[in-house]
Write a structure and sequence with these properties.
By secondary structure, this protein is of the alpha+beta class. It has 11 helices and 12 strands. The chain has 2 domains: 65 residues, no CATH class; 208 residues, 2-Layer Sandwich (Alpha-Beta Plaits). The radius of gyration is 20 Å and the shape is globular. It starts with 5 loop residues before the first helix and ends in a 6-residue tail after the last helix. The C terminus is likely disordered.
Length: 288
């Protein structure tokens, strides 16, 4: 990354920095792709004045990453899963199902709504949080416009995902904005440490969420295979094929949740590409 000279730094507006302390010192420039990547790598090295300042800087950095098309691995797969103390001890162990959500087009919504965006984000989180709790889920973390929850049973995670999409669709938003949330689900056996969940299961869940579109619910093959009981009336799982996910060694089969009262048609998943499958595989369990 080319160094930012003092003159060039002085010319940048305050919005080009993720963190400005109470003395006006500007830290973590996010004016271009290379500086956003550098800020993501250095974030935990910064001595923030308090937790609120840290959270504001984190949210600005995440928005900048999305603006430049950067998948913020250190946050979405790492910072996102952190929970501490008693909260961690209450989280389920063993085989669990992760549910991750992400607001589609959050940067454009922020630019359009301005100060109203904070209230919108608060309302979106309230809808997601209520749906997760009603379905017997556990909140792991909420960072910027992303939300991370975990469930002991995959059917409960699916109930929460459907409730989230239905509630967001029915709600009236400021300035008649359209608010759509991506949802990804994955089932696995992560390790629960004193800082939260770690392991490939967390990574795959994040990638599945990233692959989805606003209003869509995507499942990994493991999440799909975890349903031991019949789904609710009118709910089906439709195979979209196998796809290469960023940072995942093997191609992953993705399944879309279809419900009569929810949108069913979306563009292809946002992945590195689809994988050709044999004719025999294509005839095997196209839906359940």
């Amino acid at each position: 990354m080319p160094p930012l000279s003092a003159t060039a730094r002085a010319r940048l507006p305050d919005s080009a920095f993720a963190y400005i302390d109470s003395q006006g010192r500007r830290r973590l420039p996010i004016n271009d792709v290379s500086h956003v990547r550098n800020a993501l790598a250095r974030f935990d090295q910064v001595d923030f004045e308090d937790d609120a300042a840290r959270e504001r800087a984190r949210e600005r950095l995440l928005r900048a990453a999305k603006k430049h098309g950067i998948v913020p691995l250190g946050f979405f797969d790492g910072q996102l899963r952190k929970a501490r103390g008693a909260n961690v001890r209450s989280l389920p162990r063993g085989t669990v199902t992760f549910l991750l959500t992400d607001i589609e087009g959050s940067t454009k919504l922020l630019e359009r709504l301005g100060d109203d965006y904070a209230g919108l984000l608060r309302d979106v989180r309230a809808v997601i949080r209520a749906s997760v709790r009603t379905a017997s889920g556990y909140e792991v973390d909420a960072r910027a416009d992303e939300f991370f929850a975990v469930f002991r049973r995959s059917t409960h995670a699916l109930d929460a995902a459907l409730a989230i999409q239905r509630a967001l669709r029915e709600k009236a938003w400021p300035q008649k904005a359209e608010v759509r949330v991506r949802i990804g689900m994955h089932t696995g056996r992560p390790t629960l440490t004193d800082t939260g969940y770690v392991g490939i299961a967390v990574h795959i869940a994040a990638r599945v969420c990233w692959a989805s579109h606003g209003g869509q619910i995507l499942l990994s093959s493991a999440a799909r295979d975890s349903f031991a009981e019949r789904l609710a009336e009118g709910i089906t799982l439709r195979s979209l094929g196998r796809f290469s996910l960023h940072g995942v060694a093997e191609p992953e089969a993705l399944w879309q949740v279809d419900a009569a009262d929810l949108r069913a048609k979306f563009p292809r998943p946002r992945t590195l590409g689809s994988v050709r499958i044999s004719r025999q595989d294509s005839r095997t369990n196209p839906t359940i």
